[in-house]
Amino acid sequence: MVSETWAFLNSNFGSNIVAPLIIWCVGGLAAFLFTKHYADSIRLAHGFKQHGISRISTLAPSRREMRRIFEHASKIKIIYVAGHNFIQNSEYFDDAVAKNENVEIQYVFAKDDQKSGADAFIRRIQDMEKRAGIRDLNTDINDDVHLAEKVLKNYQDKLPNLKYQQFTNEYRMPVIIAETDLEKNLDEEQYKTRKIKVEAWLTVTMPPYKSKQNILVYGREDITADELDRVQESGADSDELNLVRMCELHFQSVWENCQEHASNE
Q1: Do residues 205 and 248 share a domain?
Q2: Residues 171-179: what's their mean pLDDT?
């Protein structure tokens, strides 16, 4: 059978018609698969851009990015359970003190379980981490919370616009938002419509995984100040699913909720 097939392909009919046809089919299939893969990549990239996503990675926000925003941003908003890995890099706050002392910083993190009840959400997070073997049995998540409190209180004397709130009973995805003015030396009217670069680093984290073991989604949008105000005032009524705007609204909702609960205590 093999010899007959070989003989056929070496015949005039086989070599002049069938063999080129086979090559054409194989080449066409390869081209189709390549084009399909490329088209899928284009559609994926377009979908990311449509929803304000610039990149997705498994890396934490870089040290260089964080130092940049603490040195230049006009406003920084942060949500962490405690943010041990972030808060221990107090050099970020030192950068702000040295180069950007008027930056407005809002930091939201959990209360320790002694203040928020025995069944506090952070205690349940810790239990999951210990069962999964990613937290040492001798460590206490409250220590991370206390470190955040200590660092933030220490810098409040040096950064007059540094404020923090604490939550008690609900998990929030870690997020960092930075708003940086793109225009300088404006009069009062121009300042209201100034261009702002808004960046968001959203960590998609699912306990028992720690935030440094998860997926980071980064987005950026350049927007005018009055448009940003409208976004924050619109609430979740907008049908537009945009990463940066969703992070802005989420943070605002969490911050206001913390304020409300703090005033009732």
Answers
A1: yes
A2: 86
pLDDT (mean) for 25-32: 61
Total number of domains constituting the chain: 2
Q: What distance in Å separates the CA atoms of residue 215 and residue 212, rounded to the nearest whole number?
A: 8
Are 85 and 165 in a shared domain? yes
Distance CA 3, CA 90 (A): 77
Q: How far, in Å, CA of 87 to CA of 106, rounded?
A: 13
Residues 132 and 238 in one domain: yes
Ordered DSSP codes for 232-254: HHHGGG-----HHHHHHHHHHHH
Q: What is the pLDDT of residue 9?
A: 47
3-state secondary structure of 139: coil
List the single range of 63-77, 206-220, 234-248 with lowest mean pLDDT: 234-248
Query: What would the two tokens of residue 200 be?
Result: 């968001």
CA separation for the pair 90, 66 (Å, rounded): 11
Question: Domain span at residue 108?
Answer: 55-263
**Residue linked to tokens 């008027």:** 102
CB crowding 42-60: b at 16 or more within 10 Å, else e: eeeeeebeebbbeeeeeeb
CA nearest to 197, candidates 178, 216, 184: 178
Alpha-carbon gap, residue 73 to 76, rounded angstroms: 7
